[in-house]
Amino acid sequence: MARCCQQFRTIGTSIPYYYYEDTQRSDWVYDKSYIIVEPPDGTYIEPPEAPHVIPENISRSRISLARTRTLSSYPMTSTPNLLSDFTLNENDSKILETFLSNDTTPVPTSFMKTPFLPSDLFLLLDRPTLLRTLKSHMNLNSWAKKGFVKKKTLPEEEIFLPGKKTLVGPILKNTSSDIANLSIMLTKTCRRFIVHSENANIIEVIRRLDGHPALLPEIVVFLIIETNWKISTREIKNAWTLFLIIISRFKFDKLYGQLDIIKVLRSYFTLIGSTPNIPHDIQINAMLCLLRLSCKSLPFIPFDQSSPLVFSFSCSTPKLLFGVSLGEVLLKERILSDSQKKSITLVPKIVQKIVSKLKELNVFKSRDVFKEKSSSKTEKLKTIELLNRGNLEISVESVHTVTSLLKYFFRKLQDPLIPTEFVLKLTTNLESYKCIHMANLLPNEHQDTLMYLIGFLQELAKHERETNMSSKRLAGAFAPCLVRYINQAGEIQKEHPFKAATERFLWCLIENWKTDEVYNAEEEV
């Protein structure tokens, strides 16, 4: 009897992978002794971790250990399409279309090569697979036409259209019957916000999800449907605002039953963010959701029940620079930039602005800089507020207030500049060359930003006589800002077992790392 294998495809390339039923394994290599068959509708098999050989057209630009200037090919313009070199497909030109369809056009290679985006995008689900996955986990008979007298079930294609329809049961098959009514009530609350823009509904949605986190997969599938449209209407904008709020406020478990909700969401956001010729605000919202969901921590956006509008604005504004990831900062700076020039590094301009301001304030002659606290907390908070509104001109004249801004920026990154998995490998006797090797293994934007910061600290250390700040004291001042240790209870600890090792790691970099390539690079060319 002939043996069969099922063929699947990924989001970003036409390269297939194969699932061998008899051995229950998936592989990128096709065994010719098997007959290829199409998988049944709704079937999804996790792809292998990575191809044995990643083809050149989908490989990451900086997969090698040496730093390369990969961003120089991407324009820093405020054009309606962020990455304007996409090839337009005939199907994508029909603006009156949903995003979820049977279109098999892969995500453009240029999108996946954007150096501050996650490196695993090519392993996500393509459009048809995503749609089949959703259908296989949904109660499709829970949807009915709005205003029915007798229950009239919606056709499948109408279920995935945003707008008015009636939900008469749980959206997902794995949702407990105990919370089915809560799910229906929650979707009604979401619809009220989407239609009427009433901020009180935001508090109600958050309150219900805080009390019943098992409703999260229900509500995100509902919002996938409500944002599945290529025109930026008021209701679509509100649906995206709600999506951003939920992604920013709640931590998702990977699996809900058999549904990998994180993979589903990241696939959906990637497909939208890479679709050409769609409204700019839809594309940016999808990108922000993708970047936030790809981090291990939630963004540092404080929630105050008495000010839901402030929280809503902070979650959705393209200007917020404090409390989010480095990738998000870089994305937003490209949105806000009016320059037609190209950046040659992956260092946030806000970091460069703060360092330039410090030099303007004679930081190299300031005593105990980075050890003294801000002279005015009010002035510091006011400056952060202005920077978060897109005003990058720093008018503060206190060197210690500006140094506290730099430390605050790094301390509030969504994911720390030096990721926790790197910190766990540090020891107090790690040789300098190993420290440099580890620094060169950091993600693209983390590597460049750390190199820029170390370059500045190296220059500062040369003025130890005037500043009283040696390499060792500078390493001690910055170590708590650049790493984050979370205990088993999920709490951030200031004192942790890797503190001394982190300080030594930074000291080795200040003493030995060659940083001219980034620190002394022209900001724009």
From TrEMBL:
PROSITE patterns: RHOGAP (PS50238). Residues 324-517 form the Rho-GAP domain. One of its GO terms (cellular component) is cytoplasm. InterPro entries: Rho_GTPase_activation_prot (IPR008936), RhoGAP_dom (IPR000198). SUPFAM superfamilies: GTPase activation domain, GAP. One of its GO terms (biological process) is signal transduction. GO terms for molecular function: GTPase activator activity. PANTHER family: FI04035P. This is RhoGAP domain containing protein. It comes from Tritrichomonas foetus.
